[in-house]
Amino acid sequence: MRVLCVPRSALGLLLMLAAQAAPAFEHPGGPHTQAQLDQARAAILAGEEPWLSAYADVVQFAEEGLAEQPSPVAVFDSPGDEDPVRNAEMKENLKRDTEAAYYCALMAALDIDLTPAARADHANKTREILVAWASTTLEISGGALFPENGKLKMAYIGSAMLMAGDLILDDPGWTQSEKNQFLLWVKFIYRRNVVEIMDASGNRGAWGLYAAMLADHLLDDAPKMQELEVRLREIIDEQVEPDGTLPDAMARGEKSLWYTYFTLAPLTHAVETLRNDLGTDLYALVPPSGGTLLQGLHRFHAGVLDPTGWSTIPQVLVPGGADDWGANLLFAMGHVYGEPGFVASATTPLERRNGAWKEADLFVPVSAEGIVVPLVPAVAYAWLATGLLVAGGIAVQRRAGWIRARSGAR
What we know:
Layout: H1 10-20, H2 34-45, H3 51-66, E1 75-78, H4 84-110, H5 116-136, E2 139-142, H6 149-156, H7 159-167, H8 176-194, H9 202-218, H10 222-239, H11 247-250, H12 256-278, H13 293-305, H14 327-337, H15 340-345, H16 378-386, E3 388-391, E4 394-397
Parallel strand pairs: 1-2
Antiparallel strand pairs: 3-4
């Protein structure tokens, strides 16, 4: 097994010197800011929703994560349908380790009623997983038919590993050599692979860009982040039509609704990361094509409410069902754009499997104008739990949800 040796290398020395300089970005920051962590902690201690129920999930997942033994592989190979058994194995290993690292890091960062030893246990588990992957996984690939498959999975699942690293980046448990090793892996293995799909069409390009942005945030690389801003503007211009449709997603036929979500989620979270790091707000961007993110979101929301109105027959995972994959996006964007109808449709549990808008109801974003949009009033959460919510003049049936009795399935 090849190991990435960094402690005494020239590259490791460069990272040590760079770490002594003032960081370009705040850590935690980018996808999750310290202000959001502070807001979540205060709201949880005050017993406020939706933070309190979201935190119950975090506690459960972090407890499961403490028992996780890292399963990195030298070559992360995701061959897709060419070898479905191996493909599922690779994906599941990455998902388990990523979830464990992220939720343990989040538990340590929130640090609510934890003893010093318990907080250290959670941070140490995250660090153990990150260092295991950084010292083992030196190649990311796919099958002959879809060679980008592994890079895409590393972008949409593995991106939460970078968020985990950011949450505990200043934790005293790191040794300098461990931190160097992890950051070198992010720079020369992770980022190098995800940028290779950044120019691809559809969701692949969106996920590649978002993952690269998380890497540049972690590496404090402001010039690279500025370059990614240019590409982000281009992708929004390329992906969204003036009527809100995403042509690449619509070309997926019965899966068009899913792929609309799967493209808008990383694009919007990339916009959020850019706003938090560089102060550039692209939520209201009107590109040359005329298609905006908000138009795309309205189109997606219309499909959630009435999928039969789409030009193709979408593969509908019913909102409020066990696989309610669009709720995290609608919840986050409802607060960014001040769209109560989006929030009303965001039944719980929110999607947590992918790296975009993970824990959206814990890290509630501010509006595009920089003002916190009021959450749906507490009484509305009760309405959601009983099944009927009226928002924007439209009565929408929803299942019980805000008081989460999750089965434990992820």
